[in-house]
Amino acid sequence: MELLNEYDKAQVQEKQTRSTGVTLEQIDLVLQQLQEARAALIGLDDSTEDELVVVAKEKVSRLAEGLGHAQAKAMAATKDLHGAVAKYAKALDKDKKLKSAADIDDMWNPRVLDHPDARRTLHTAVIQHLVREGRFGLARTFAAEGAKADRDRDRERDWSADSDSGSGIEGQQGQFAEMYAVLAGLRAFDVAPAEAWVARNAVALAAVDSPLAFAVARLAFLKLLFGSPSTPNNNGNSDNHNSNNNNNNAPNRAAALAYAQTAFAPFKIAHLKDIQKLMCCFAYSNNIAQSPYKALYSHDAWSDLAHIFTRDFCLLLHLPPESPLQTCVSVGVNALPTIIKMSSILKDQSGLEWSTHGELPVEIPLLDRQRFHSIFACPVSKELGTKENPPMMMVCGHVVCKESLLRLGKG
Amino acid sequence: MSTDTKKLEGGEQNMPLRRFPQTLYLIDHITNSSRYAGTVSRQGALYSVPLEQFKRAFKTSQKHIEKEWAALATSANDHISKLDLDRLKSKEGEKPTREDALKVVDGLLGRFTTLKKKIQESKDEEELYAKRSRIRLEHLDELLSLPSQESAGFTRWSKTQLDRILVDYMLREGCFESAKNLAKEAGIQASFLQLVDVELFEQSKMIEDALERRSCVECLQWCKENNSALKKMKSNLEFNLRIQEYVELVRVQKSAEAIAYLRKHLAPASDIHLKEVQVAAALLAFEPDTLCGRYKTMFDESRWDQLIIQFRAENCILNTLTTQPTLHTVLQAGMAALKTPMCYQAENQNVKCPICIGHVYGALAEKLPNAHHVNSCLVCRISGEIMNEDNLPMALPNGYVYSQKALEEMALKHDGIVTCPRTGSQFHFIQARKAFAI
């Protein structure tokens, strides 16, 4: 990357180290000379006074020279460093992609977050984000400090009426604690917490047609059959392990079969084909790696299950699968260059102001997964579909908005 | 803004566009730019801050080496020549003794040892900020070498970025414990701490707290340390602080001290701030509870708040920081880009959409403009997937549209019957018709 290369080319770090080294070396030299002079003076015999004076003068005057030299050397190294830093600073300045702070401050700032109420809402949003990420301690710390900051900032307001956000955290924490327990289990290749959660929420999951229940059962079965991925799966030794091993991480055909017979029963209809595939896995119980089914039990299978689990967990709780703060910030970061460009253009155009109503003047590109609402733009009039002007489908299947339809009809 | 006209199919004419005409040509330009443009363009302050800190430390080092060292060398010379003179002057056998010479040497030893310590300190600071600059540059480098926005590496980088933005936010809110804990947890390597400017904000907080306690001392010290930069900015912060200290003396009627203070600190500024100095001088004649306009404002307690605000603003400029937390800027941009009128309509809520969370993001986004979309983009209510040529939109007899894949899946599981999630009405899959709405 350019800037990093510029920095290294200018040798900023090396020169800094060198200048430090040289400077301290020189100063140590000076100190040493001073010590020598001192020692010499003390060592002189009292009686020879004239000599004393001469020697003293000589030693001390040499000192002055030494000081000068040392300083010059240190100065040289310093200048060198200065040059290097100046080069880097210039490269930084020139880099057009990096906007300086001043530019951004002048940019679009609808000041929506300046109001004290908005700031408290923002605190809540941050706390929720932290809880969602499983950082419960941090959420609590911030809730306390944030509340104090609010109180300090706005002393006239009556804060006693506000509910303690701490209790909110407890509630959310309880919800997410479960999720993190299961995810931790999955990371350790332990399906049990997931199975328990699925059992508890079987009804809700069925209602949303979730694939999770079967996915968990499948993975549990495969684990019984092939053993935990972390334990080395010795080819051909699985039978030996059975008798000696109490550890339920070892492959255990009999248990797998028993499990399959009970656990797969509810999925007989919907997942028949999948169950058939899984039964075939028995033939490969010694070398899953060579089977066509190895994808079913790779490390990715575990992380995919974690993914499905997180998604369904949030779905049941009516929560978004990704932290909303993360979503907004990701989108915002990508939106900024566009907005900055727009601001500079608008400014040039004799001070046209951004209004805080209506729409942004330009489209911000969103990733597919950041699209949450349908937008319909009429191919005829380019207007967006609204309640008053809804999209209408014609007999041929093409869709235009109502107004356009009426206009077409007139002709 | 001039309205533009467009010839449309079907002979439509004179259809005014609601949007700024010039923006259209720009859209292509913007989408063609680097895919990480957004992430990179926000980072200016990230690199300029440690650079400024480095420059400051460097200036101090330079001062030590250039000025103080030279001064010591000169004074050494002086002493030496004095020794000589003394010797010449002494007629009564008062010769310069060993003690005199020793005194000179000891003196030099002491002062050079102090100088060494000071140089070491400023050099350590230089090193810290030089290293920090590099670590931040490496961080950016990491981003630019990622394959795509969908990669796991990018997700990880985004998480680090969000953590960094949150730490900056917490620091500015004065929540130092939270900020430090977050930094500790977030950093897999210790280098995360190098991505945030904890010390800077801690120092500012200390000064602001002092001002809240009605003490100008710390802020004046800060002004002294940043004298040259403040002068370049033509800042009158120091003068305002001096005025405030003076006012406080007058307030408690310590007239003698006030006058002395006026002479020492305010009078020298008369060339630039004559009017203010005159008003200040006249203040002595008034009581703190005076009603006389101009002098009443001088006694006003809110002047302290003004000082805090001024310090904060100038501190940011000096350190090339933005005055708004990054979180504010980024969040407002993101919310506007996501906001649609549907977010506020009960029947169109999407659980994944942040703005639909009414009591948090919906509330914050209320006063923001909506996102602007030129092209259709249909999102299936059932699966959340985009409807496109791989996944066609299909309309049920009741008018609602869902994606082909979602309807097919549903039909598969329920013997060909699909249920409209919005109304609950049931239809057979055959009844769904392809809609050409893209």
TrEMBL record, chain A:
Compositionally biased tracts (Basic and acidic residues): 147-160
One GO MF annotation is: ubiquitin protein ligase activity
**RING-Gid-type domain: from which residue to which, for each copy?**
378-411
Biological process annotations from GO: proteasome-mediated ubiquitin-dependent protein catabolic process
Superkingdom is: Eukaryota
Q: What is this protein called?
A: RING-Gid-type domain-containing protein
Its chief place of residence is cytoplasm
* Zinc finger (RING-Gid-type) stretch: 378-411
Q: Name one GO cellular component term.
A: cytoplasm
UniProt-listed PANTHER family: GH10162P, MACROPHAGE ERYTHROBLAST ATTACHER-RELATED
Family annotation (InterPro entries)? CRA_dom, CTLH/CRA, Fyv10_fam, ZF_RING_GID, Znf-RING_euk
Stretch list, region Disordered = 147-171
Q: Which keywords does the record carry? A: Cytoplasm, Metal-binding, Zinc, Zinc-finger
Location relative to the cell: Cytoplasm
Automatic annotation (TrEMBL), chain B:
**Alphabetically, which GO biological process terms does the record hold?**
proteasome-mediated ubiquitin-dependent protein catabolic process
Q: What is this protein called?
A: GID complex subunit containing RING finger motif
Cross-referenced Pfam families, in alphabetical order?
CTLH (PF10607)
**UniProt GO molecular function:** ubiquitin protein ligase activity; zinc ion binding
| GO CC annotations, alphabetized | cytoplasm; GID complex; nucleus
Domain CTLH spans what residues? 201-257
Q: Gene name?
A: FYV10
Q: InterPro entries recorded for this chain?
A: CRA_dom, CTLH/CRA, CTLH_C, Fyv10_fam, LisH, ZF_RING_GID
